[in-house]
Amino acid sequence: MATSSYLSNPVLKVNSVDLTGWCTAANLNRVVEAQEDTVFGATGNARTYTAGLENNELTCTLFMSYAASEVYATLAPLVGTKTTVRVQPTSAADSATNPGFILTNTYLETLPVLNATLGELSTIELTFTGGSYTVDTTA
Residue 86: inside a domain, yes or no? Predict the structure, then answer.
C-alpha cells in the first residue's frame, strides 16, 4: 500500500517563463539508452547491457494562448532550438519531497500553432527531446 501520494498540479517553466497557468499535464521520462555488451565468452545464455547516452523526453499539454508573453509568444522562437525546461510536481518550494526536474539543452522540434475545434478550448501537446537531466532539491 502506498504510504505517500500527491495531488497532481505540475509547475512548468520553459526558458525561465512560467507556463504553469496553461499546463494541464506533464510527463517527464528519464531515459538512458541500453548498449549491448555481451561478449563471446559470457557464461549463461543471456544478453547483458551497459548504459549508453541519455535520451530524456518531456511531453506536456497546454491550453493555447496567443496573448503577449503567453504560450505562443514564449514557444514560437524556441522551435528548432535548444532550451531549458523545468517541471515540479507541485508549486511548493524545492525540496527532497518536491524536486525540480530540469532538462538543459533540450530540443523543441515541433510547435502545433493551431489546434481548434468548435466549442472546445484549444490545447497543444509539446515534446521536448534530449538534454541533460538534473534534479534540484534546494529551496
Answer: yes
